[in-house]
Each structure stands twice: as C-alpha cells, then as structure tokens.
Design a protein that fits this description.
Elements lengths: L1 E6 L10 H11 L5 E4 L7 H11 L4 E6 L7 H16 L3 E5 L9 E4 L3 E5 L5 H5 L4 E6 L1 H14 L3 E4 L5 E2 L11 H13 L8
Parallel strand pairs: 2-3, 3-4
Antiparallel strand pairs: 1-7, 2-5, 4-8, 5-6, 6-7, 8-9
C-alpha cells in the first residue's frame, strides 16, 4: 500500500490548482475507468477541457447533488446555467436525489487507486481554499470505496445528451416551490462574475 497526501498551498490568497492538477494527472493515467463523487461541481474552461481529455481515454462518471437535493444555494444556482457544458465533457453525470445532501469527496481510478479528502470539484476548492486529498494505492481499499460509492448511485438520475434525464422508477424528485426555482435563476445569473467564490 502506498499513501500520498496532496494539498493546495497554505497561503491566504489565490492558489495554484495543485490538487486538481494532481488528480487530473492521475486520471489521465487511467486504463479502465474513473469515478468521481463531489457534492457540487463548478468548473472553468481549464477544468472542462481537462475532463474532455480524460473522457477521450476512459469512461468517467461524476456524481453530484441534484439542484433540489443540495444544501449549497449558490452552487445549486450555478449548476443549471452550466449543465450542458458538463454534458459536453463526455462525462456521465449522475445527480443524487437521496433526500439528504451528499458530501462525499472521493475518487476511484481503475481497480487500485483511490483518493479521499476535503476537495470539491469546484472553483473555490481549486483556487482559494487549502484543500487536501489522501491518495491511496491499494486494490483492497479501492474496491471497498468503490462499492460504497456505487451504493449511492441507485438514487441518482442520469443526465442524457439531449439535456433530459433518465430517472429510476423508485426515485422521487423533491418538489421545489416556484419562488425558489426563480431565486436559483436570479442568483445564478448575478453570481457569474464571482463564480470563483462558489
């Protein structure tokens, strides 16, 4: 077993995207598949392009909270404005609707490498916060983590290429009031110049 700690710089100002870059290098070496779980996803062009490179090599699945299921109002406001861009990366996008907001931050690459920690795949974690990920090379732990992660995916809807969803029969999507949906749209638009804070 090999364990490596990866961290962003510890300064109080903007940071180089060390964690995202390191995770990207590992994902680009994947031979079979990549599975990402993150509560929220807020990307810039660099992050979109990186994921396109990876999906050109191997299948990538990313699970996030659905807008209705998440508890971060700003991230939930941003995602609908960029949903198509996530679909265009070639990733399989799963939106979790399990009832309680999901906060797992983990990554599985092939059958022997996994990572867990505090890093969200969003701009704030990438460029502002001092996040860390523990990268573990262990087939046994990777298999256990993957089994745990996949167990949540039964309660997900899958984003289809045309922007619609494939929804499991047992899954009930939360009924959100019209005023809250309107607020998501307004806040999402207003926050576009400040997405690095989300």
């Amino acid at each position: 077993m090999k364990i490596t700690l990866v961290s962003n710089p510890t300064g109080i100002y903007g940071k180089e995207p060390v964690v995202f870059h390191t995770m990207s290098v590992l994902m680009k070496d994947a031979k079979r598949s990549v599975l990402i779980h993150t509560p929220y996803a807020v990307f810039n062009d660099y992050m979109y392009d990186t994921m396109k490179e990876i999906t050109a090599r191997v299948p990538v699945t990313m699970m996030i909270n659905s807008v209705e299921n998440g508890d971060n109002f700003f991230a939930s406001s941003d995602y609908p404005m960029h949903r198509d861009a996530f679909g265009d990366t070639g990733m399989e996008i799963l939106e979790y609707d399990g009832g309680l907001s999901y906060h797992g931050k983990s990554l599985v690459i092939d059958d022997e490498l996994c990572a867990v920690g505090s890093y969200n795949f969003d701009l704030r974690s990438t460029y502002l916060d001092t996040e860390l990920m523990l990268v573990i090379q262990s087939p046994e732990l990777t298999a256990q983590l993957e089994e745990y992660m996949v167990s949540y995916q039964k309660d997900c809807r899958r984003l289809l290429p045309d922007g619609t969803y494939e929804i499991p029969e047992h899954l009930t999507i939360a009924d959100v009031p019209a005023y809250k949906r309107a607020a998501w749209k307004v806040v999402g638009f207003v926050m576009q110049p400040f997405r690095f804070l989300i």
